[in-house]
Specification:
Chain lengths: 115, 113
């Protein structure tokens, strides 16, 4: 079974609008972490935001916030006030504590921001 | 400070040749990871080093793949007898410890002809 599922291969959003990128996960480990990375066309992976499984509040980093719904096993990324530079691939990833802490990645969502 | 660096940035090799890819992690980062990203796909875990512990090699796809790391410094990923299906971008990442976020290098694009 897929550990990380990103069901949106591509998304479009108009500049200055908000957009939500979906991510669901599957784990039986009570201690895990969820990450979002951005990969622009240059190829480098850029860390955006982290949510721990025991964190009580949703993580926020500037224009990025993580809508963490533990019971539904979802960790959607919300980007507010989209900018043209936000156009990139976005990957959701999970780290399981009892799985040597490696990151398991989803297949990604390509976000395109248009003027 | 300097980020994770990888070399070469691009490598074209003939099928059957061996290649070595290098990763310089961020200074002080004890954890180092190698991932592979095939065209249009997500990242696949290959191998993980943490300090002086035995590496986690569970993601290596075949015995043609191996990696070494000297202490908490440079790591090399070696692919022997390359095959066309090895063509991909190989990404290295490091972190202060496994519980922290991983910082990625720019990757090495490997093309096997």
């Amino acid at each position: 079974a897929q550990k990380i599922t990103q069901t949106q291969p591509g998304m479009f959003v108009q500049e200055k609008e908000a957009v939500t990128l979906d991510c669901t996960y599957d784990t039986s480990d009570p201690s895990y972490g969820l990450f979002w990375y951005k990969q622009p066309s240059s190829g480098e992976m850029i860390f955006l935001i982290y949510q721990g499984s025991y964190d009580q509040q949703n993580a926020t980093e500037g224009r990025y916030s993580l809508n963490f719904q533990k019971a539904r096993k979802s960790a959607n990324l919300v980007i507010s006030a989209s900018q043209l530079g936000d156009s990139a691939m976005y990957f959701c990833a999970m780290r399981e504590r009892d799985n040597t802490d490696k990151l398991i990645f989803g297949t990604g969502t390509r976000l395109q921001v248009f003027p | 400070g300097a980020g994770v660096s990888q070399s070469p940035s691009n490598k074209v090799t003939e099928k059957g040749k061996d290649v070595e890819l290098r990763c310089d992690p961020i200074s002080g980062h004890t954890a180092l990871y190698w991932y592979r990203q095939r065209l249009g796909q997500g990242l696949e875990f290959l191998i993980y080093f943490q300090g002086n512990s035995a590496p986690d090699k569970s993601g290596l796809p075949s015995d043609r793949f191996s990696a070494e790391r000297t202490g908490e410094s440079v790591s090399t990923l070696t692919i022997q007898r390359t095959q066309q299906e090895d063509s991909a971008v190989y990404l290295c990442a490091s972190s202060l410890s496994p519980v922290y976020e991983q910082y990625f290098g720019p990757g090495t694009r490997l093309t096997v002809t």
